[in-house]
Predict the structure of Major intrinsic protein.
Amino acid sequence: MEINMAKSHWKEYLYEFLGSAILLFLGLGGIFLANLETLPSVLKYLIIGLSFALAIVIVVYSLLGRRSGGHINPAVTVAFWMNGLMENIDAIFYIIAQLAGAVFGSWAAFLIFNWRSPLLALTLPSLDYPLLLILCVETIIAFLLITIIFSL
């Protein structure tokens, strides 16, 4: 039964793949552009933040997001699943599609922008803070994201 459901929802999985790929491609493109010139740090962060925000708006409000729900984040998919809003098989394939799309979008950005080092877009926590604090902050941010989504 669940396999038949997965076969009937392949378009939604494809849309999640494409949405995640677009998010990473445009977001990483913003990182690349922000690092082309010697810009003030504030302007660099603004460019990067706006590129990710624009990518999310494009994905969520396009056909991709309207058809699949525009999760583009495994944490959102897990929240939908835990609230009984998704079947097991759909949650699994959504997460697989999101991860694969993120890898593809990152790879495409790396090739198109001709980066010399993939470390430019690598997110690492600062060593100035304890790992437990970083984990707590990430958890709170994910909680706030999901709370906002469920309140809409």
The mean pLDDT is 90. The chain has one domain: 2-121. The chain is about 75% helix and 0% strand. The CA atoms of residues 71 and 78 lie 10 Å apart.
